[in-house]
Amino acid sequence: MSNPTNSSQFHQNQVSPSHSRALIVPEMPVPVLDGGNPNTATNGAIQNERELLYNVEIVLGRIRILEDDIQKFDLKIKHHEANLEFLKCQSNSLDKSIKDLEGGLVAHRSSRKAETNSQNHENVQSEKDTIDQILKEDKKASSVLCREKSLQAAGCTLSKDILGIVAMLGKAPDDNLSRLFSEYLGSENMLAIVCKTYEGIKALESYDTEAKINIVSGIHGVGTITGKPVSGRFLAICLEDLRPYVGKLVAGDPQKRLDLLKPRLPDGTHPLGFIDFAVNMVHVNPAYLTCVTSSGYGLRETLFYELFSQLQVYWTRKEMELALPCISDGALSLDGGIIRTRGMISLGQREEVEVRFSVSLPASSMSLDMVESEERLRLMIWNKERIDEDIRREKSVLDKVRSMYTLKREEFMKFLDQSAPLMSKHQDLLGQREKC
């Protein structure tokens, strides 16, 4: 915001630097009027000139005062605009934190409700349950790999680049989400063997000269020795070859969650019922948090981002359907709704996938966390309300200052118009002096 007039330029137009002694009245030719007194005419001209110069000084002084006033209002406007911008940043940051915390609490309350309705807490998935489910898949490569004792007894020397099975590398926040995530991924993905590099993939399976599978080496060799030969195809995932998430991680998060932008509807608002992205709701087993590729990407940025991408999780089907305009990579709802990708929706009864993620925390620990989270949520909401009130006050003050600035500027422009004839006479006087 700039001053409405350039003072120095205005002064140059009105009072030239070469005539800085304008208040000193020089000797001028005395006009002789017919039948009049020469001295009287001269005195009148001098008096008129002095009055003109005096009035010009008054005008210039008033202009300087008005310019100073306008500049002060200009600085006040910038000050209040900066305050408003700072407060809005604080409010937006708190709003993001509140939505994150509310999402976690909604997920927990929903899972607790599902457990209460079923009245069967013993069904909550544990790591042992997951291992038992994998072992039931008798002739699957994942079952062979899961038999650690059998591998050791057989003297298996599979590559250290083989990390394990998808179902064992992460955990779900609760049993309901464990079932949803597993159903969304399907058995093939849940039983996929994850390798850090392609060397691990090659260690799993080799071929003879006729391009047939060598059943005495790799995972097939172990299966043959232990009496559980591998049959059928199985999925192997190479982390090094996946296209990783390349954005920022949530600062200070021990789980290294991805700093994904919350979805927004076309009108700019966040969809109701949005909890979080599935990729951030998976709890990576601590033993694998330090596992990174040669490029420095962890399991969440590679494996789980590849499996879930930006899959959104909502509280209900209804809220998920209302959020369709901002769903691109699919969505789940806690009551069983599944959108695979935009335009592809899974209907019908829910299916139980045998192999599921284990649950990350026992119910008692989650209850304590819930109490702490609710207290933090109340404090955040209280702080946001205080900041939003400050924003309203700051906006009101800014509007008043802008209004006063506008009035002062109008006063300035009006004064310039009113004083224009006087300043024009002053310019004429200066022109006469230059001729003398």
Strand order of the largest sheet: 5-7-8-9-10
Shape: elongated
Largest sheet: 5 strands, mixed
Task: Write the H/E string, N to C.
Answer: HHHHHEHEHEHHEEHEHEHEEEEH
Helical coverage, percent range: 40-55%
Radius of gyration: 40 Å
Low-confidence runs (pLDDT<50, min 5 residues)? 1-36, 114-122, 362-366
Average residue pLDDT: 76
How many individual β-strands? Answer: 11
Oligomer: single chain
Question: How does the helix and strand content classify structurally?
Answer: alpha/beta
Summed up, the helix count is 13
> How far is the first residue's CA from the last residue's CA?
44 Å
Structural description of this entry:
The structure is a single chain. This protein is of the alpha/beta class and 436 residues long. Helices cover 55% and strands 8% of the residues. The strands form three sheets. The chain has a five-stranded mixed sheet with strand order 5-7-8-9-10. The protein has a three-stranded mixed sheet with strand order 1-3-4. A three-stranded mixed sheet has the order 6-2-11. A hairpin with a 2-residue loop joins strand 9 (338-341) and strand 10. Helix 2 runs antiparallel to helix 13. The longest helix is centred in the N-terminal third of the chain and has 81 residues, at 38-118. The chain is elongated and about 130 Å long. Mean pLDDT is 76; it is low at 1-36, 114-122 and 362-366.
